[in-house]
Amino acid sequence: MVWVHLQKSRTDSIALLQQTNRNLVNMFIEWFTDWKLTLDQMKHLVLASLQALRDCDVTAVTTFACVLALFVWYCYHVGSEQPRNYAPVNAMMQSADVNGLQNGYMYCQSADCVRCTHNEGRNQKLYHNLQEYAKHYSWSGMGRIHKGIREQSRYLNNRSSIQKPEVFFLPDLPTTPYFSRDAQKHDVELLERNYQAILAEFELIFKAFSNCSLPQGWKVNSTPRGEWFTFYLVNQGICISNNCRRCPRTYRLLGSLRTFISNNVFGNACFSVMSPETLITEHYGPTNVRIRCHLGLKVPSNCELVVGGEPQCWAEGRCLLFDDSFLHTAFHGGPSEEGPRVVFMIDLWHPNVAATERQALDFIFSPGR
Description:
It is a single chain. By secondary structure, the chain is of the alpha+beta class. 40% of the residues lie in helices and 20% in strands. The protein has twelve helices and 14 strands. Strands 3, 4, 5, 6, 7, 9, 12 and 14 form an eight-stranded antiparallel β-sheet that branches. Strand 5 and strand 6 form a beta hairpin. Helix 5 runs antiparallel to helix 6. It is elongated, with a radius of gyration of 32 Å.
């Protein structure tokens, strides 16, 4: 008699695997029914398991096991991470130990000042905030923010000199020095319709300059030449209550804007006043996630804004939109008898920042975090 080895087909292997699995299930049911575990049954279980592994694709099983192990490790790593003590974001944005003013922003010696110091501690703080947001809400839609925080040092250090935000760069946003009015059409039209009301409230608070050189609520900003004053209603996401009470209609208008950044440190709303013969040194804004909007209130001759090397002029009652993460400067070269250049400045969301990203950025950069 001659024995002939027959090669099992793929179908037979699958059938055998299914039969083996059914046998294992039945075996477990039997054990949990009468609680009679024996060494023979253990031996049969081990042999059946080995046979099942031999009948499967070993490469696929190994790959799946590795991926599963990595996933379990990641879950354990994230879940067991202890909260760290970080300085709040707005404490980084401005420090109490101020030694000087430049370009309207506070420059200090503190290592926590986010505008003045570029270090890994800031990126760790931002990533910690992103993790906290994801735990409370979701990682969905966080791809660009995660990428931006992970590679922030490269973005800030290696970008061309024409656009270099000082704090946070969100990758893959369309880049242009100026935006058309249609970028935020609703808010632009609303601001322009209320031009007269805003101008009237400005004139009331500006009268205080007739009695003193720096009235209450106003800030003076350092410039190489001339004078530049600001009166904030919202400063880095914080409402200035006393100033808002003095401009009630303008403050209520902010609540009607759909894209005003009101809940994080990148949001500002203020009256900006440049005296004749004033020059503001070239500088960069903190981020590219916003559009800065200037509503012209008083625009004398020979006043100009230059963003990314492109000059533009303001117009009374009209909004000018630009990305202040580009290198920009402004000057008022008109005669003193024409008075100061005055704009109402508001920070709006970049139109290509999605709603989920806005919510996350409000959380990550919220005042007090």
